[in-house]
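Deliverable D5.2: sample structural annotation.
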Amino acid sequence: MRIAIISDIHSNSIALSAVMSEIESSSIDEIICLGDIIGYGPDPLTCIDVVQEKCSLALLGNHDFACRTQPVNFNQLAREAALWTRNKLDTAWPDEAARERRISFLDRLPVRRLFQDDPRLLCVHGSSRCATNEYVFPDDVEDNARFDRLFQRFEGICFEGHTHMPVVFEQETRTDDDGVEHSTYTRYLGYREDARSPGPDGTGTIRGASKVPLKLSANRKYIINPGSVGQPRDRDPWACWAILDYEPDSDEMMISFRRTYYDWHRVLEMIRHSQQAEEQLPYRLDEFLGARLERGH
């Protein structure tokens, strides 16, 4: 079984469409979305429709929650984007039934779920102990005490998004002569900063770790972040996602990252168009939310 794992789409339908096209040509059996379907970007309705249709499991992200409630503890740009998105969700496009379907879908998203009821595979947006809001950044691997607590809360693999940075954390546990367990943690980045090559649009993109599989050991535990489809922040503007090769009755699993090119200029133009078309709204999408896509940061 091959499972595509996507996260943090953030209303970027151009990136999502490109990733879905690649998924369709990659012999994928199921798709999991780890949340933040909406927020920041200019096309939330399309992104909701695609995830609802294509994903066997979708989770609630902090931006999904904020767009349905209140954007608390958000910076000004994120807050304005959440309120702008809420207005789009209230639009009956193309009809009232579609509006109600999208809202009902968002309101029923779980915050954590075992994939296929397999106790080895936990899916969250944030972390194993705070499913929606806790960030686990690549450099956090140096905090052993924190990682001990995170890894205590699941059995095999925890899939999480939220940071927009692709990474795998591996826990190895050993017992000393006194019978006390000690854990060490290893970080595998889903990118390599020393391996850059030009993309179709001339931008410098990171290709180093793309499609390189990592074998997951049955006697170790993992936290896996697939990166972001709609707003990467690892200094690579290409959409990022991952593939898990997995058999429910086998201990053998492989994870590999994918990078997919898309035309980020179109997203920026959509944001500019929204500013012109909806001047009467009190909330707007800031042009920075599109311009930052070029840097992948």
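Annotation notes: The two ends are 33 Å apart (CA to CA). The first strand starts at residue 2 and ends at 6.
The annotation will be released with the project's public dataset once the embargo ends.
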